[in-house]
Amino acid sequence: MNKWVGVLGSFALVSSLLVGCGSAEETSGSSDTKKEAKEAEQKEVSNNVKKDKDGNYILDTVGQKVETSGATAELLKIKEINETIEIAPIKVTINDVKVIKVTEVSNEFAVDVSLGSMVDSDVLEKGFSYVQVSFTAENTEEKNVEWYELMKVVTDKGEQVDAQMVDFLVDDSETDSVFYGKVKKEYKDGFIIKNDDINKVKFIFSSSMDADSYEDITPEQQVEYTFE
User: Fold this and answer.
1) 3-state class of 117 per DSSP?
2) Higher-pLDDT residue of 186, 69
3) Three-state secondary structure string covering 18-54
4) Are the C-beta atoms of residues 132 and 98 closer than 8 Å to each other?
5) Is residue 72's pLDDT more than 60?
6) Is the peptide bond before 89 cis (omega within 30 degrees of 0)?
7) 10-29 pLDDT per residue, tens
8) What is the pLDDT of residue 114?
9) Please, are residues 28 and 76 in contact by the beta-carbon 8 Å criterion?
10) What is the CA radius of gyration of the chain?
11) pTM summary value
12) Can you tell me the distance from the alpha carbon of 135 to that of 84, in angstroms, rounded to the nearest whole number?
């Protein structure tokens, strides 16, 4: 299965069309004399969605949509981050966080991305939204380290998601929790949420552990980001 990049993300948009109309006003001297309407400042919505090296669509501007035979995805929010989190000896770099709305979901598509076990059929018919986070993790030491990546996702609308149980964007990095020496892995996780009108999202990352002795090295770390 090709993973969404926006899903279709990650599905992983450009600014909405902004049209301001100049109003026609009468002058104080004559009812027949009117000011000419000014040209509005506007931006076109570009829906030329890029693809990554694997052919997955990348939604990167709010308002963009991708339509396929299986579903339609629209980017609602995006936060470019590019920040590192130290969970020694693991160094995590968060690239971005997105909120994506998916509609017109076919049964085949739902099965393909393992959605059936996570949401009810009526939710799939109406559409759903999810938080997507993209990050990399690198072991900076030669010793083997075990790390279970993202543990919890919490929104400012009161939702808490068990990231280990409901991540439906499964990638190769998640097949083995051990970093055998100086290894770097890429992750893209997706979590369905009930309320997509969120302003903040909190991520709680796993502690790092010595893969041989099973002793904790660095405890869980928490970060929070605000959509502007």
Assistant:
1) coil
2) 186
3) CCCCCCCCECCCCCCCECCCCCCCCCCCCCCCEECCC
4) yes
5) yes
6) yes
7) 443 322 222 233 333 433 44
8) 59
9) no
10) 22
11) 0.77
12) 9
68: its two tokens: 């396929």
Residue whose tokens read 């693991």? 90
Cβ proximity of 152 and 163 under 8 Å: yes
Computed over every residue of the chain, the mean pLDDT equals 81
What are the DSSP E strand ranges found in the chain? Answer: 50-51, 57-58, 65-67, 72-87, 90-103, 128-139, 145-147, 150-155, 160-162, 178-179, 184-193, 200-205, 208-210, 216-218, 221-226
78 touches 68 (CB < 8 A): no
d(C-alpha 204, C-alpha 149), whole Å: 9
C-alpha to C-alpha distance for 135 and 150, rounded to whole angstroms: 10
Q: Report pLDDT for 150.
A: 97
